[in-house]
Amino acid sequence: MAQTLTTIPVFYRPEMVALDASLTSPSAGKPAQVVADWQRQGLAVDLRSFDPLDPATLALAHDPAYVHGVLTGKIVNGFGNRKPQVTASLPFTSGSMLAAAREALSNGQVACAPVSGFHHAGYADGGGFCTFNGLMITALALKREGRVSRVGILDLDQHWGDGTHDILRHLGLGWVSHHSPGPEVPSASDAAHYLRRLPGIVGDFHDCDLLLYQAGADPHIDDPLGGWMTSEQLAERDRIVFDIAATVGVPVAWNLAGGYQRDSYGGIEPVLAVHRRTMQACTRTFVTGSKVSH
């Protein structure tokens, strides 16, 4: 039975942050900034700790040799380097996703993992700022625990989840339903039509025990690696996902995914604003008595 929530559970530990992981992507250092922003805004979040994942759990979705090679620095990570701070963060980023998924199943509604860097990681390789696929690791770990029969992955990052697709194909996992726009890159002219379709897309996950939702910030029209939805359309996207999932009774565990805009000072305030609106939409749907507006 779904619990009454007064806050959104958010699984954060400082160890999931890797500073200076890349000159191009802020993703590895983003969790701390996003969480701090949510707290400054007075959003109803409850920060919780969790355990990092061991190599065997990471290898549920990946070639064990690839996992070992990355963790020992013999294989480059998804940022294309071997920086030890990135390596150290990886068991925590996927660990956050799994912890959020367990909590969403437990409370019957929602939980958040404020992390990025999953969907371009395939069975035996990484790329696109993604090293291990925490979405697939989470699904497989929950299946191993006997907690799920079917899992949905709704990947609304700007870019197609090619790594997720690769793992699904390699392992033959028919019990995972995966939706990600693409592989063709959507354009601004597609946004209104897609939003009209989105309630049906989310509703199609009604037979899943859990929905893993990547609420990417990079589809924003001004993102240098994105470009098909306005701020208002992204807010509507999140409202639809959370409201329809709640209506059909599918718990949601969501994460941040991509976002690459910079402000005039070189900071990521435009990205933080997108993630802020996602959390506002989440609290409005799931937190009792929430007065947050879209």
Count of alpha/pi helices: 9
Distance between the termini: 28 Å
Structural shape? globular
Sheet with most strands: strand arrangement:
3-7-6-4-5
CATH top-level class: Alpha Beta
Number of domains: 1
Beta percentage is 5-15%
Which range best describes the helical content: under 10%, 10-25%, 25-40%, 40-55%, 55-70% or over 70%?
Answer: 25-40%
* Helix-strand makeup class: alpha/beta
Using brief descriptors, characterize the structure shown.
7 strands, 294 residues, alpha/beta, single chain, two-stranded parallel ribbon, Arginase, Chain A, globular
Short description:
Helix content is 40%, strand content 10%. By secondary structure, the chain is an alpha/beta fold.
Can you describe what's shown?
With 294 residues, this protein is an alpha/beta fold. The protein has a single domain, classed as Histone deacetylase domain (Arginase, Chain A), CATH 3.40.800. It contains 9 helices and 7 strands; from the N terminus they run E-H-E-H-H-H-E-H-E-H-E-H-E-H-E-H. Helix 1 (30-40) links the parallel strand 1 (8-11) and strand 2.
